[in-house]
Amino acid sequence: LSERFDSAWKKLRGQDKISEANIQEALRDVRRALLEADVNLQVVKAFVAEVQAQALGAEVVSGVNPGQQFIKIVNDELTKLMGETNAPLAKAETAPTVILMAGLQGTGKTTATAKLALHLRKESRSAMMVATDVYRPAAVDQLITLGKQIDIPVFDLGTDANPVEIARQGVAKAKEDGIDTVIVDTAGRLQIDPKMMAELAQIKEAVQPDEVLLVVDAMTGQEAANLTRSFHEEIGITGAILTKMDGDSRGGAALSVRQISGQPIKFIGVGEKVEALQPFYPDRMASRILGMGDVLTLVEKAQEAVDIADAEKLQEKILEAKFDFDDFLKQTRLMKNMGSLGGIMKMIPGMAGKISDDQLQQGETQLRRVEAMIKSMTKEERKNPELLSSSPSRRRRIARGSGYQDKDVSKLVSDFQKMRTMMQQMGSGQMGMPGMGGGF
Ligand code: GDP
Ligand code: MG
C-alpha cells in the first residue's frame, strides 16, 4: 500500500518520470562531480547533455527521487561509454605481437612496459622489451634494470643508435627468438612536441604495431583531452594505460581518453612496483569518477525491489495460465540480474552440490540459445506460442533469424508448451507454488 501511495504522490508532484525540471539539482551535482574528477570540461558538457536527453521521460522507481534515478542512469552510461567490459590486449596471428608505448615523459611508460611484460608472462606469453629512449642518459639502463628484475630480455643498442633502427632490429630479434610479444618503449617529452611525434610515427611505420598504447598519468587532469587528441590524430592509438591510479585522482582522465579517441583503457597502474598493474574495469571506474556510491547503492536496492514486484506479477500470470514467451524472456533476464544460473540453483534447497559446474555451464548456454530464438520471434508469436506449434514456416524463419536449426526451434516450442501445462497443473493443483522453493 505504501508503495502505491508513494507512486501516486510522485505522480501528483510530477516526480514519477524524469523531466527537465525535476533533475536540475542532480544535474549540477553530476557536473560538479565530473569536473572534480578532472574530466575535461568539454567532455563533461557533451556527455551530460547526451545523457540528459536520453534520460528524459524515464520512469522513476519507487523509493528514490528523480535526481537519484538520474545519477544511476549517468553511472550506467558512463560505464557503457568506457566499454562495459575489460578490453584485452591484441594478439597478432603470427608472432610476435608488437606493442608500441607512447606518452609524455614521466607518465610511466618505462614502468608500464615492464609491468605489461610481467603480465604477459603470467598469461604464458613470452615477452621482450626494446629500449629506444636514447635521449635521457639513464633511460636505457632503467629498462635493463627492470628486465633483470623480472627476468625478461631487453633489446638495446646503447644511446648512440637511431631509435627507429633500434625498434626495427628489436622486433626482428624477437621474431628470430620466437618471442610472443615485443614491447617497444619510447622516449617522451614534457610536452607535446613535433619531433617526438615525428619519431613515434617513424617507429610505428617501421614496426607496424598491433597495439599502440597511450600511457596517461591519472593526475594529468584537464590536459588529458588535448594530449589524447594529439597522439590519436598524429599516431593513432589502439588503447591506453592510465597510471598512478594509486594516488587520490578520481580518474576522470579515463573518460576524456575514451570519449576523444574512442579507444579503450586497457590497464591501470596502481603503484611503482612491477606487479602494480590491473585490468581496467569500466564499471568500477565509472563509480570512482562519479564518486556517488551511496546514491548508486540506494537506487540499485530500489530497482531490485521492482524486480521482485515483477516476479510476483509473473507468478500471478502463471496461475492464470497466461504465461507467454515475453514473460519467459523477462524471467530469464530476471535470473540474469540475480546473478548466474549457478548462484540461483545453489539457493534452491537440496540443490547445492548436486549439480556439476559442467551442467551449470550447459544450462547457461541453453538459456542464451533460448533467448536468441525468442528474440527472433514477432510480437504476436511471443504472445501466442500456439502460432508456432502449427506453422513450420514460422519456425524456419525464427531458426534462420537466430542462427539455429529448425529442430532447435521445434524443441523450444514443444518444451515451452510442456512447461506451460506443467505450470498450470502446479498452479491449480496440490503441488504448491511453482519455482519458489517448494513443489520440487
Ligand atoms: P616514463 O618517463 O614515461 O618512462 O616514466 P617512468 O616509467 O620512468 O615513470 C616515472 C615515475 O613514475 C617513476 O618514478 C615511476 O616509479 C612512477 N610510476 C609509474 N607508474 C606508476 C604508478 O602506477 N603509480 C605510481 N605511484 N607511480 C608510478
Ligand atoms: Mg621512460
TrEMBL record:
User: Can you supply a Gene Ontology BP term from the record?
Assistant: SRP-dependent cotranslational protein targeting to membrane
Q: Which GO terms describe its cellular component?
A: signal recognition particle
Q: Where in the cell is it found?
A: Cytoplasm
Establish whether keyword Zinc is in the entry: no
**What EC number(s) would the UniProt record show?**
3.6.5.4
InterPro entries in the record:
AAA+_ATPase (IPR003593), P-loop_NTPase (IPR027417), Signal_recog_part_SRP54_M_sf (IPR036891), Signal_recog_particl_SRP54_hlx (IPR013822), Signal_recog_particle_SRP54_M (IPR004125), SRP (IPR004780), SRP54 (IPR022941), SRP54_GTPase_dom (IPR000897)
The residues listed in the UniProt record as binding GTP, with positions renumbered to this chain, are 103-110, 185-189, 243-246
Question: Which Pfam families does the protein's record reference?
Answer: SRP54, SRP54_N, SRP_SPB
Q: Which domain of life is it from?
A: Bacteria
Is Cytoplasm tagged as a keyword? yes
**A single MF term (Gene Ontology):** GTP binding
Keywords for the protein's UniProt record, in alphabetical order: Cytoplasm, GTP-binding, Hydrolase, Nucleotide-binding, Ribonucleoprotein, RNA-binding, Signal recognition particle
For the region Disordered, give the residue spans: 378-406
Q: Per the database record, which ranges form the SRP54-type proteins GTP-binding domain? A: 264-277
Query: According to its UniProt record, which reaction does this protein catalyse?
Result: GTP + H2O = GDP + phosphate + H(+)
| Family assignment from sequence similarity | Belongs to the GTP-binding SRP family. SRP54 subfamily.
PANTHER family in the record: SIGNAL RECOGNITION PARTICLE 54K PROTEIN SRP54, SIGNAL RECOGNITION PARTICLE SUBUNIT SRP54
Q: How does it assemble?
A: Part of the signal recognition particle protein translocation system, which is composed of SRP and FtsY.
* Summary of the function given for this chain in its UniProt record: Involved in targeting and insertion of nascent membrane proteins into the cytoplasmic membrane. Binds to the hydrophobic signal sequence of the ribosome-nascent chain (RNC) as it emerges from the ribosomes. The SRP-RNC complex is then targeted to the cytoplasmic membrane where it interacts with the SRP receptor FtsY.
Q: Domain remarks in the entry?
A: Composed of three domains: the N-terminal N domain, which is responsible for interactions with the ribosome, the central G domain, which binds GTP, and the C-terminal M domain, which binds the RNA and the signal sequence of the RNC.
Report the protein name in the record. Signal recognition particle protein
